[in-house]
Each structure stands twice: as C-alpha cells, then as structure tokens.
Amino acid sequence: MFKTMKECTDFIFTLKAVDHKRAPLVLMREVLALLNNPQDRLRAIHLAGSNGKGSTVNALREMLQHAGSKVGAFTSPHLERVNERMTINGNQISDAQFLHYMNKVAEIIETHYEGDFPSFFEVVTLIMFQYFADEEVDVALIETGLGGRLDATNVITPLISIITTISLEHTAFLGDTLAKVAFEKAGIIKENVPVVVGVKSEESLTVIEEIANERHAPCLVLGKDFTVGNVEQGNNTQHFNYRKANAEMVAVPLKMAGQHQINNASLAITAILTLRDNGAIDISDDSIRQALAKAQWAGRFEQLPNDIILDGAHNSEGTAALIQTLKTVYPHQNYRFIYAALSDKDHAKSIALMDSIATSIAFTQIELPNAMPADHLAALSTNTNKEDNANWREMVQTMLHKRNDKDVIVITGSLYFIAEIRQWLQEEQR
Q: Does the first or last residue of the chain, that is N or C, have fewer Cβ atoms within 10 Å of its Cβ?
C-alpha cells in the first residue's frame, strides 16, 4: 500500500509504457469488473486523434461548465504533475484521492495478478474511472492515450465520439499508412453512437466513414456536414462563423489562436449541438459563445511575456499549424525556434517546416532517457543559423539574452519539453 504521493508516483513512473504480455483490454475489463465497473456509470464523450484532442476537450469543458454541468476531463500527457490528467471542473484530483484509488487498484493487482502490474496508462485510466464515477460527474471527457481500438479507455459506450485529426504517428503500434492509423483511431466508434470527425485526408476519412457506416453511427464531418468560415483576427481573440444543417452561429469568439483551433472548436460545437438535439444536455448558444471566448489550453500556442511562445507541436501536422498561426499572429517578425523532442518521432518533416521560416533554430534535449540528442536533431536541419546544446537552460537563457524587439522566441517539440521549460520559466519570473 502506498502512503505518500511521492512513493506512489515514483512507482507508477517505473511501469512499462505498453503491456505486451496480455491480450489488449482483457485486464482492463477484468479489473474494472472487480471494481464494480465504474466506467458504466459515466456519461462520456470519447476523443481520439493525432492532434487537437486536448484543445477540443478544453472547449467542451468550458461550454459544459458554463451550462452548469459537473465535468470530468481525462487528458494526457501532464505538464507538471500526474494529477493534471484527471480534473473536475478544472480542479485536479487531490493527492489523497489519487492515493485512495491507486491503493484499490494495487490491492486487486496484488491479490489477483501476483503483483504483475499493467502499463502506466492503464493504471492511471483505472484511477480515473473510479474517481469520476464516485464524484458523479455529469459528463466525462475522455481522451485516448494511444490509438483508439486497443486503447485502455476503449471500454466505454459514450454519448458521442470525436476523431480530431489523423497523421502518421507511433507507426510501430498504429501502422505505417494513414489508412492503418485511421483504422485504429476509428476503433472508438460504437454501434449507433454519433461520431464527429475533423479529418481532412481522403485516405483516412474513407476508412472512418466505412467503419461508422458498418456500426450505424451517424458521422458528422468537418467541411461536409458542418463548416467554418469568415475568420477575423482581433486582439487576443479571433472570430469565425459556424454552420451546420440546423444551426448557424455568426462571429463566434475564440480565445485560442490559429485556424486549427477554430477547427477544434467546431468539433466541440458540433458534438455539443448534437447532444442538445438528442436531449442529452441542455445548453444555450449564448453559453457556447461565452465559454469559447475564454477557453485556453496550456502549452498550445501559449503566449508569454516578451513574445515567448510555448507550443507542444509534437509532429509535422502540429508544426504546420504552429507555423500558420505564427504567420497570422506575428507577421513580419523574426522566428527563433528552440526545439527538443523524444527519439520515437519522425523529426525530419517538422524540422524542414521550421527551416522554411526560421531566422534561427537552437536544438536541445529533454531530461528523459528517450530524449533525442540535440546534435542528432541539428543534423536534420538545413538552416544556416542553427546551433545545438544539450543543456536547455543554457540555451534558453542565451536566446533570451540575445533577443531583440523583432524576435519571437518559439519553444516547441515534445509536450514533456514544454512542461520542463514552462515550470522553469515560472520559477525564474518569481
């Protein structure tokens, strides 16, 4: 039994990332049954996708909270503390609650499985299901961790599913084509449960629509069944028009920057309106507008003082969205990138995209065992003004010291890197 949060987190961070020994989801269902199936007490919205899950969850949470709902949100990765992964109305699970539910899981694993623990994500997911069920949340927003079909969260029948975007990622697990990745993500689609889709690629979309059709799941696709347009940029807020068959909203305000965030917000709006039409929730158009006007998400085009941007663009699709947003929000500026990432990603495309607009690129590395070495990242860049330094603190301090009024410092790459830097910057500013 764990007595302190440190003891607990020290242990769970030693757990394997993926459990290869057991058939997928078998242990999850067995342990959940021993916990009296808390997942079956949840009214959930289930989200999968390569990018945009966190921002879409944030938009959903703001809208539902504004309408008076008690909203649980399960997201990953965390930036500073594992507690961040499960919140109710934006408040993190307490250490005492986390310990309580962790010890219930540990007791079952020790008693029934000889202490052979499942993966880190499975354990955290088991904690989340108990927490949200016991707290009787009105709606649980649940992100997948990896893929969808075999993901630890895929033991629920949600009110509605959302698939944000599809790109090549985790190819060893999800497959090496967009169609294969789409097949895995579409595994969250359930019989007769509506699914909202933001995917643009025809290769991916064809797979998703076929699976939705097989499962008699109404499929609402961005650009086909609902649209966004008439985007106007303002000071710290952008506005857009939203339209679907039976609804139209004009000049919707959005705090989060970038066209990709408009797309994410439109997925959230469509899910909310669909649930409203089905009688599952009660929410006004005014609540939707007011909520989106204040929705923000840490580490996603997060604008700090002195023109510092933090953005966890962990793949080429995310990097492309980051660059488009930079050009819109900071036109005619010098873009000075600081980049670090994990070794399990394909960095060449992301770095090539940054090379295309960067005044300079500084490569560094995260303080994790699977960090990509800074010099290996630098070798992928063709930028004539590049440098590498394994010590990211030195790198950031040097960059901040050298910057001028035309410079925008863009710190990007892995969200784990963003987490390290974000915490450090906050401490430096105290």
A: C
- Please answer whether residues 336 and 407 qualify as being in contact, where contact means their C-beta atoms are separated by less than 8 angstroms: yes
Residue finishing a domain among 239, 271, 292: 292
User: What six digits make up the tokens of 418?
Assistant: 């963003």
Backbone angles phi, psi at 161, to 5 degrees: -115, 155
Residues 94 and 163 in one domain: yes
Burial 318-338 (b: 16+ CB within 10 A, else e): bbbbbbebbeebbeebbbbbb
Using the 3D structure, point to which of 292, 311, 333 is the last residue of a domain: 292
Alpha carbon of 171 to those of 96, 179, 247: distances in Å? 38, 12, 38
| pLDDT range class, residue 51, cuts 50, 70, 90 | confident
Q: CATH number, domain at 318?
A: 3.90.190.20
Tell me the pairing of strands 91-92 and 160-163: unpaired
**What strands lie across the sheet with 358-363, from one edge to the other?**
302-304, 308-311, 407-413, 334-340, 358-363, 386-388
Q: What is the model's pLDDT at position 211? A: 98
β-partners of residue 412 are 311, 339
Whether residue 297 lies inside any domain: the answer is: no
The CATH code of the domain that includes 230 is 3.40.1190.10
